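Human: I hope this is not a bother. Would you mind checking the protein record under this note? Thank you for your patience.
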Amino acid sequence: MRVSEISAMVKVPISTLRYYEKRGILKPGRDGNGYRDYSEKDVAWIQFVQRLIATGMSLAHIEEFSRMRHQGDATVGQRLTMLTQHHDRLMRQSRELNEQIDYLEHKIIHYQHQAKSQE
């Protein structure tokens, strides 16, 4: 697939795909004319990268993960550790956010009661 096709498919701007390539995050193949030739595997990788970004993983960590990915099976343990640490961080953030939401809901109920008593 050409860069324009994959850009439309994964809803990522062409400039972003080229930026990922420049940073070593994405390494598409080339066709006989030297044009980028993206595979289904590249599509899945881009979607995974987008999820990592959406969940707050830094590009530096994604680059590191990508380097390890290209090194093959010898780095599976390290990649698992990275993902586990990222997951744990997200779970902590989720718990903290839920605590803040619970507190805010308590305050909303308090002010609802106060507003009703003023009617």
